């Protein structure tokens, strides 16, 4: 028996496929920079062993942007801050066009996002019409991210054939009230529970670098492991001017990469996706380091309110690394 956390993780996670527990994740997050490469390499081995070499590519489109009544302190789409994002709706032809462009990149998932507390009737009708129009023209799975849901709304989305629902817990339960005050972590958890029960895939992640401690980062990884989502999008805070978190420091690159690897060890079989904030935290090399450190899903196109890297750059990278893009229905 060893007390070195990486030797232990190798045996527990890589060999046996058992996730690291919360206290173990914390130990990983506390590793010194000198051991970062060793950690990333182990996280990569775990991902290859328990998920395989495929990378899922997804597109994301904002159906309704800005003007949200909630106060998530990181979000430039809240109508409560002086952020520059103004409220706007996308029409159905533009939605279909975006789905077509997304499918062309090889993406298998197209996520329709709205900046709302939860959907109202008008939004759900728009989503239903959008899904039908996309179905008629594009071969792609459809995901939605429309905020908190009632049971009735969950059932409606399931009936529309929504394949996956994204709803982020954002941060550890113990840190949530420092990030959002207009709704609770438990309300978010309840939506996720109903989504999973209705048979949709659950996509749930959050944002790192919002002032949480390493203990809370480990707590968050353990929260997600308990939820057991199909996919976890990991964002790094990109401090947006005008939001309450506008003046926070960007997460240092080593901390961001350590977190990616630690989340992989806490979620050995989950799809782990680089979402927003990657460029500002990790720079140009970040994509490669992440994809060789536990990440196995990426977004093409823009990140809703800030521009990400162009799709081609990421797709070329996957090609260079000889990682195949997951094909549609490959898991059926
Ligand atoms: S609910 Fe979503 S869109 Fe609204 S402020 Fe929070 S993160 Fe932004």
UniProtKB/TrEMBL annotation:
Pathway: Cofactor biosynthesis; biotin biosynthesis; biotin from 7,8-diaminononanoate: step 2/2
Stored CDD domains: Radical_SAM
SMART domains linked to this entry: BATS, Elp3
Domain Radical SAM core: 53-278
Binding residues for [4Fe-4S] cluster: 68, 72, 75
Gene3D superfamilies the UniProt entry points to: Aldolase class I
Catalysed conversion reaction: (4R,5S)-dethiobiotin + (sulfur carrier)-SH + 2 reduced [2Fe-2S]-[ferredoxin] + 2 S-adenosyl-L-methionine = (sulfur carrier)-H + biotin + 2 5'-deoxyadenosine + 2 L-methionine + 2 oxidized [2Fe-2S]-[ferredoxin]
GO molecular function ontology, one term from the record: 4 iron, 4 sulfur cluster binding
Cofactor list: [2Fe-2S] cluster; [4Fe-4S] cluster
Keyword check for Transcription: no
PANTHER family on file: BIOTIN SYNTHASE, BIOTIN SYNTHASE, MITOCHONDRIAL
HAMAP family associated with the record: BioB (MF_01694)
UniProt name for this protein: Biotin synthase
Organism: Mycolicibacter arupensis
Gene name of the record: bioB
